[in-house]
Specification:
The chain is an alpha+beta fold and 174 residues long. Helix content is 34%, strand content 31%. The strands form 3 sheets. The protein has a 5-stranded antiparallel beta sheet. Strands 10-1-2-11 form a 4-stranded antiparallel beta sheet, covered by helices on one side. The longest helix has 17 residues.
Length: 174
């Protein structure tokens, strides 16, 4: 399991995640990179779930982004349709957060492509801990969102046994 958190403000969008990989109740690896840049570093993505499933879907998404000339929303909707209806893709188990300078999206295998009104998206076993912390920090501090992502992931790592404190944090500044 893992924790991935993204926050957007009027200057940038940040996405971060921990590095823990588990197999059942055992920690297998503590430095897995679950944040990936795609589409010539113009899109940041994070995933929670199977690594190979996530990379498969991100490759398909990137092809769709090329086809739709950079339109992330249209590409995500088309990926979601395929993911839901294709016999092979339907078995893939992961959740994706994808962000660019214009939009932040959560994409799931249930056919969901969602934007969040508060611009805070979190997935994974520690996702709700990180989201709650981020929401409180966004509303009650003037910290830069990159610092909020870091602090929120740290809080999640102190609460969720499936989240560690080896973070990868990336930012797109507009």
């Amino acid at each position: 399991m893992t924790t991935i958190l993204s926050i957007r403000d009027n200057k940038s969008v940040v996405i971060g995640g921990d590095g823990q990989a588990t197999l059942g109740n055992n920690i297998i690896k503590d430095n897995v990179i679950k944040i990936k840049k795609i589409y010539n570093n113009k899109i940041l993505s994070g995933f929670s779930g199977s690594t190979s499933d996530s990379f498969t879907l991100l490759e398909i998404l990137e092809k769709k982004i090329d086809f739709y000339q950079g339109n992330l929303l249209k590409s995500a909707l088309e990926l979601s349709k395929d993911w839901r209806t294709d016999k092979f893709l339907r078995r893939l188990e992961t959740m994706l957060i994808v962000v660019n300078k214009n939009i932040s999206l959560l994409i799931t295998g249930n056919g969901d492509v969602m934007q969040f009104d508060d611009n805070i998206i979190a997935i994974g076993s520690g996702g709700m801990y990180a989201r709650s912390s981020a929401k409180a920090l966004v509303e009650n501090t003037k910290l830069p969102i990159k610092d909020i992502v870091n602090k929120s992931l740290k809080i999640a790592s102190e609460i969720c046994i499936y989240t560690n404190n080896n973070f990868i944090i990336e930012e797109l500044i507009y």
